[in-house]
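User: Can you predict the 3D structure for this chain?
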Amino acid sequence: MNYDIIVLGSGPGGYVTAIRASQLGFKVAVIEKESLGGICLNWGCIPTKALLKSAQVFEYLNHAKEYGLSADNVKADFTGVVKRSRDVADGMSKGVQFLMKKNKIEVINGFGTVKPGKK
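Assistant: Here is the predicted structure, written as structure tokens:
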């Protein structure tokens, strides 16, 4: 298959680039070795922020009295916290997948290499 633009990686820079190129009328493909959204969305930034938010809520609950509230016997469910983090990342990755389909961008699972001569 021939493409006008092939984007290596579907991280925050890659998928946005692919979408914009498609919107401008180019035939686009994205090559991704793992999950759409790249490391940031699936394993780095986004899941980490979800974990931090759970920690923040836990901290608030442990200091509820300072807010005039009662929240006794607050316990952390680490399995639930991690599950929430994974669910957030999975949902966002599915959102990127939707955007690829909506913008008619072919997703190729695998690795890509830039060769001389724009190949």
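Helices lie at 12-23, 38-42, 45-62, 78-102. The mean pLDDT is 95.
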